[in-house]
Design goal:
mainly alpha; about 0% strand; globular; about 270 residues
């Protein structure tokens, strides 16, 4: 049994990028410089800007032009997603459905951003939604064969958090809180990572809980369980759900947005 999950620190360049993205006053020039310093981030940004969905009339080859094309807020969200994916390491032997996992994170972030109150909190909500399962990613990356046991137990009916505690002596909520501290995330983001299974008083936590629940209802499993599993759909519907779904543009619009982010993050 693994009883201690070592959360690796972010590499220096990625730590600086994450810190900058947490600062909502950061300029486009500062974000552009961070992206240009990392080939992987640059490639993701250019793929996004040159995608058919971005309606680029001429090929975009500069990060600064890509930021203008896709929009500053979307670019920040894309960098957060790319940083998280780069930290996940190899998850091939974990038993996780990796396509479902990444779509789940993206859908949760996108829904959370719409569910959050208007203003800067919406950028934070996307980030919190993307990062809410960072503890699961850390556990799976550090001990893939052990996390495969978690997946097998969860799919046989054991609640996922219980299965994690049985195998690791801790769960992905606690591990996520450790990761948030290790990566110097703001306290409100750390609270959303640690509290995404239970409704709370914080608008950010509430947005992530809504994102996670609606993602399951719209067909996005979490990589461990299928979307129709009762563990993912245990919470009651909320009065705000129709408004959130309307502001998303409906399930088809969400699916297109998830695909856009996914394609930007995967080289091809």
């Amino acid at each position: 049994m693994v009883t201690n999950v070592p959360v690796p620190p972010l590499p220096g360049a990625h730590a600086r990028a994450m810190a900058l993205l947490m600062n909502l006053d950061a300029s486009m020039a500062e974000v552009s410089a961070i992206i240009e310093a990392d080939p992987g981030l640059t490639a993701s940004m250019l793929r996004a800007a040159n995608s058919a969905a971005s309606a680029a009339s001429t090929p975009i080859v500069r990060v600064s032009d890509a930021l203008v094309r896709i929009g500053f807020r979307t670019a920040r969200s894309l960098v957060v997603a790319a940083l998280l994916r780069s930290q996940a390491g190899s998850l091939a032997n974990t038993g996780l459905d990796l396509t479902a996992l990444w779509d789940h994170l993206l859908a949760t972030g996108l829904i959370a951003a719409v569910a959050a109150p208007p203003g800067d909190i919406r950028s934070a909500a996307f980030t919190a939604g993307m990062l809410h399962d960072v503890g699961r990613l850390a556990m799976a990356a550090v001990a893939p064969e052990d996390y495969r046991q978690v997946v097998e137990r969860a799919r046989s009916g054991v609640p996922t958090l219980e299965a994690e505690r049985e195998v690791f002596g801790t769960d992905h909520l606690e591990t996520g809180l450790v990761a948030a501290g290790s990566w110097s995330l703001p306290p409100e983001l750390a609270a959303a990572v640690a509290g995404h299974h239970v409704r709370g008083d914080s608008p950010l936590v509430e947005a992530v809980v809504t994102g996670r629940r609606l993602a399951a209802w719209l067909g996005y499993g979490d990589g461990v369980l299928a979307a129709n599993d009762p563990q993912l759909c245990a919470q009651d519907a909320q009065p705000s759900d129709p408004t959130v779904l309307a502001n998303l543009g409906g399930p088809e619009a969400l699916a297109r947005r998830v695909a856009w982010f996914r394609n930007a993050l995967v080289a091809g």
